[in-house]
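During the reporting period the student researcher (J.K.) took over the structure-prediction task from the postdoctoral fellow and processed the backlog of single-chain submissions. One of the processed entries is reproduced below for the supervisory committee.
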Amino acid sequence: MNSMPNNQTELPDGWSISRLGELGEFANGLNKGKRDFGFGTRFVNISDVYLPRLEVETLGRMNANPQEIEQYGLRRGDILIDRSSVKLDGVGYPTVFENADEPVVFCGFIICFRPRKDSIRSRFLCEQMRHENFRLKVFRVATKSANVNVSQE
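J.K. obtained the following structure tokens:
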């Protein structure tokens, strides 16, 4: 029987353990005032992250100019992570942006993780980030105030 320390996992051949920051880039979302909602560009809000799959057709709209669409526009495979929640079990929860027929941006309460390599399967990584072991690690580093928050780090 192979005895490994509790903090290590036996991996399939060719696999390795990496920190998320080694695999991609993090970015915070777009913040807007009340008057900028209800029209314009589709945007991902916190409540959209918790669905089993992101449903672009049901997303709200936000007034975003071309520079904001360029900076905060989502690409296929981006992983969206709730960075602020009223409940601990909501913080750090991920979903994957699959695709859309029009530009989609993300709100300031969400962190976007954009994988660097095409070899990273976003759906698989997202499912790993939803796993209880990963979630417990997120909960340990989350800060608590009126809301529960997690930073990119």
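The committee noted the following: Helices lie at 20-23, 46-49, 66-72, 122-130, 132-141.
J.K. will present the remaining backlog at the next meeting.
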